[in-house]
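ENTRY TYPE: paired fold submission
RECORD: A
CONTENT: sequence, then structure tokens
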Amino acid sequence: MKSYKVAIFASGSGTNAENIIRYFQDYPNFSVPVVITNNSDAGVIERAKKLQIPCEILTVGDINTSTIILPLLQNKYEATHIVLAGYLKLIPEHIIDAYPKKILNIHPALLPKYGGKGMYGSAVHRSVKENGEIESGISIHIVSSHYDSGEIIFQATSPIVAEDSPKDIEKKVRQLEIKYYPQVIRNWCLQKE
């Protein structure tokens, strides 16, 4: 049976990262060999430690330097795929070239709306609310060299009612992330073979 080693890049609290790691515990041919973060204060570090997953804290400069990041991913951790779980920096070309169509991201809105630089977290949900949208959701897409512009492989929606605050919208979107992201990652890895 082929094994899949999915490295996770994260910058924040790590709820999506933890959810993915726990989901893969039920699939012996899937594992998360490493969590990579550019934020030494990120909550994901503690979550990874609790789940006994190695966590590498790197500067953006390290990640942007192919001779540092690629040996780490390819040789030390033997990652076959990469998943972004709240990682907010642009993925450099050398990583995209090393993992062609093998890097996935989740965005907390229905792309192509509300994507691009600076559109993450509460900024997205505020914009959705201000524009009077009647639904929001998640978009899971292949990572390209531009923010939120890669091929969308999955979307799920949630209705928005007039009374919903940006926080309410965020909660609805978070539920979709938790429900769908791990299984979409698994199916995507299996389909690419």
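RECORD: B
CONTENT: sequence, then structure tokens
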Amino acid sequence: MRNIFIEKLIEASILDSDIILLTSDLGYNAFEPYRAKFPNQFINVGVAENNMVGIGSGLALKGKKVFIYSIIPFLIFRCYEQIRNIICYNNLNVKLVGAGGGFSYGNQGVSHNSTEDLSVVRNLPNITMFSPGTKTEVSIAFDFMIKLKGPSFIRLGKAPEKILLKTNSNYSIGDGVVAKDGHDIVIICVGNIIKDVIDAADKLDKLGISTKVISFLTIKPINKDNILKLTKTFKSIFTVEEHNKFGGIGTIVSEILAESTNLNIFFRRIGINDENILEIGTQKYLKEINGLSSEGIMNQIKVYLNK
């Protein structure tokens, strides 16, 4: 995903010299073309993430359009106080670009995994959040981010090679994008777990459970009407995310449903379980032990539906 992102950033920077990219000694094999084309718009601050946020904030105060890049634990968790107090409370035009969503760095252990970031970031004021699952969604998210005047955060992972979503020029911020049609149940997902979700939905279809899949590119704001509209058609709604069950898309949807009245709906969250959080291994292995492989997602839904 980061390669798609940097391609879009290069295109935008050709037209706008106020764009600045900051990194904390990361981005190798991706940022070299940007640095070569725009040496005066690229700053590697070294291993000094908190300082990077301060530098970026100062540049934003001088009218620059600032992109700050690091892997998510170093960007969000290490710099949370600076992001909260300097960027968000002052509504600065700083775009936080976090790499390694979910278990992308699984072999590095919990210090490199990002399984709580959506929960943490969505509590901040003035911030817009994107969690793309495909190359198309990365492109859509960038087009919105470059136009936003306040803070924003994008959670990048590894995009599936298969084109799962076509370009959607009619996308409005906060909306969901239909990745697969169905009429019995609906799965709402975020991020690149979309590939496993679609595969799980195909397996459910073969069992006679017609499954619709909707990807929510934007986490905050989110179009509540989009979700409530589903309750008029579907009696069972599931959320799936490569994130802790608490605070992510599952919590967001449950809040929307809980605050609505007269809903006769079956709802369940599927996500990362606390008891497995200390496990180390490949992204594939960590998804499997958390029931987030296509087979695991399908089996959990089958159990919930008593099928």
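NOTES ON RECORD B: The longest strand covers residues 236-244. The chain has two domains: 2-156, 176-304.
STATUS: closed
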